[in-house]
Specification:
By secondary structure, the chain is of the alpha/beta class. The protein contains five helices and five strands. It has two domains: 128 residues, Rossmann fold; 34 residues, no CATH class. The N and C termini lie far apart (42 Å).
Length: 183
């Protein structure tokens, strides 16, 4: 049986680090990718490490080709790269929006394009993109879009508006019977 190969982007910390460890423990050959070497050093010896910035459109293609040449074609891609800069809609700059698009969407697209060709040739593959939940404030509540009261668009600017914190997607899951129109 062929060894399954997984590329985990963002493996230097958090969800990516935990994912790399879990896939390695499950018997997959793991290639951990992160833009800095620091977090990758904490991974066990059996996990391959690649320092690369997958948000740069020129990087994922050559990175995946290097993995294919050295280890083999990937069967699994897990992208955990993501960022969110808190702020309100009235102060977002083009630079901030561009950074968030490059990190959250660009990396997902470039990595998918790089592995999809190999997965198509193999006839199968798994691509997973993960987003982290909103960070919690020190008082335990989730942060809202509005950082201060009194700004235009803030909860108190309109009597019927109120701040709605980010929700865990799991809160919206319904039993399978409801998802498929069954009663």
């Amino acid at each position: 049986m062929k060894a399954r190969i997984a590329i985990v982007a963002g493996a230097g910390s958090g969800i990516g680090h935990a994912t790399a460890l879990a896939l390695h423990a499950a018997g997959l050959t793991v290639v951990a990718v992160d833009r800095t070497e620091a977090g990758l050093k904490e991974l066990p010896d059996g996990i391959h490490r690649e320092v690369a910035d997958a948000t740069d459109p020129a990087v994922p293609g050559p990175l995946v080709e290097h993995v294919v040449a050295e280890i083999g074609a990937p069967d699994v891609l897990v992208n955990t790269i993501g960022a969110y800069e808190l702020g309100d809609a009235l102060t977002v700059t083009p630079q901030t929006l561009g950074r968030m698009m490059d990190v959250n969407l660009g990396a997902a697209l470039w990595l998918t394009q790089a592995v999809a060709r190999h997965m198509k040739l193999a006839g199968s593959g798994v691509i997973v993109h993960v987003a982290a939940p909103a960070r919690r404030r020190t008082d335990g509540r989730r942060r809202c879009l509005w950082r201060e009261q009194g700004r235009a668009g803030a909860p108190d600017a309109h009597p019927r508006r109120r701040a709605t914190p980010a929700r865990d997607p799991g809160q919206y899951r319904r039993p399978a019977a409801h998802r498929h129109g069954e009663e």
